[in-house]
Amino acid sequence: MRGNSLIRAMCAMLACASGGICALGAPVAAQGSYSPYDESPTAALARYVRALADDPKDFSALVGAGRSALELGDTQAAAGFFARADEANPKSPQPQAGMGAVSVANGDAKAALPYFVRAHQLGAPVTNFACDRGLAYDLLGRQAEAQADYRIALNGPDRDEARRRLALSLAISGKRSEAIALLGPLMAKGDAAAARTRAFVLALTGDPAGARVAIDAAMPGNWARVSPFLAKLPTLQAGQKAAAVNLGIFPDSNGGPAYAYAAPAPAMPTTAGSIATVVSTDRLAGIDALLKGAEQADAPVPQMQAVPQHMQPQQVAYNIPVARPTIVHAVPAQQPHKIWLQLASGSNAAELPERFRHMKSRDRELFKGISGYVAQSADRARLLIGPFRGSSDARIFAEDLQSAGIDSFKWTNSASDRIMPIAAE
């Protein structure tokens, strides 16, 4: 795996504490090589988007774009790409494994496991997703199962990341000597991520002095900024520890999740009827994932970090069709005040995709080209369609739904709601 997901929290805290932007962003998933080229994930994503501008149903480009977006930490965009890939080839296991990786990167382990089951049913070897499934088990506090999966992944394309994650999982289980020994081969070849992982291992196993020495060696002068995070680790439950050291997610004072990374770059409006978003290394930098009529845009791009000209983030604008009451298929992350139609709600988010498929079966013509979404809020999960450009468009479509016997009402999301597309049938 190219990224160093297990050090994201530490790097993010260091960058944020110094007032900078974390160049590493946030967690990436173990998905094997995303590109046959020796290129950065930013360059790969730009290349895939150019391919999708010519053919929005290019399966390989959709999967590649999903993996690249995940590599950049943009889980919302990755989910959209994988959902479109699933539409293009529903018999392939790759989109299912990708959606599982997205759920893991978001810290939603329960949602991830069914995707891995489906990927295996469709023919994916366990070695292809074991590193991500192992992290899902770790997040659930099921360390024995996590460690078994990581050991399987040691023989797959993500062997180095699996080794680092296994070391952390062993440390969570209190097996410090085994964890340190496991990192030996990576340390011997000068793997920087392994050096930082070793610091986490020491902190997790009750050796703050050793952790300080390790951090001073790996990142000289940064102990003061990292120590509050490491000091909190021993107070967490096993699954919380896994989320903290792998994903940079740890419980806040109210029991909800707090994230150790910088705020996202906002989506930028361009011409009327278009949305421009920024592809960057930030986890929540949104892009229009569904690629309806993609076109390149020339508007300036705010840079997340100083990079050479040919490596700058790619900005893409997507035109909105105007043939009928328009649903904008982009869902920029952390973009508040979007108008949706809520079709159902409940405490179990996993039930909502099936309810949406049932609604579509009642009038497939009405739902043609309409994607469903599940919004996770603090109080419940919601089944949505949208977002709409305005209340009038939402009202018109609500009337169409009513004619098919489907009740709906307007709902506006907040910045804290997490909205994910439903994979196609």
Rounded to an integer, what's the Rg over CA atoms? Answer: 21 Å
Q: Provide the CATH architecture of one domain.
A: Alpha Horseshoe
Broad CATH class of one domain: Mainly Alpha
Distance between the termini: 30 Å
Please report the number of helical segments. 16
Largest sheet features: 5 strands, antiparallel
As for the CATH topology of one domain, it is Serine Threonine Protein Phosphatase 5, Tetratricopeptide repeat
What's the order of the H and E elements?
Answer: HHHHHHHHHHHHHHEEEEEEEHEEHEE
For the largest beta sheet, what order do the strands appear in spatially?
A: 10-7-9-8-11
Fraction of residues in β-strands: 5-15%
Shape: elongated
Report on the architecture of this protein.
The protein has 425 residues and is α+β, with helices and mostly antiparallel strands. Among the domains are: 5-30 and 91-259, Alpha Horseshoe (Serine Threonine Protein Phosphatase 5, Tetratricopeptide repeat), CATH 1.25.40; 336-425, Alpha-Beta Plaits (2-Layer Sandwich). It is 46% helix and 12% strand. It contains 16 helices and 11 strands. It has helices at 8-17, 41-54, 59-71, 75-88, 94-105, 109-121, 126-139, 143-153, 159-172, 176-188, 192-204, 208-218, 223-232, 238-247, 352-362, 391-403, and strands spanning 249-251, 257-259, 268-269, 274-278, 294-296, 315-319, 339-346, 372-376, 381-388, 409-412, 418-421. The strands form 3 sheets. A 5-stranded antiparallel sheet has the order 10-7-9-8-11. A 4-stranded antiparallel sheet has the order 3-4-6-5, covered by helices on one side. Helix 4 runs antiparallel to helix 5, helix 9 runs antiparallel to helix 10 (176-188) and helix 12 (208-218) packs antiparallel against helix 13.
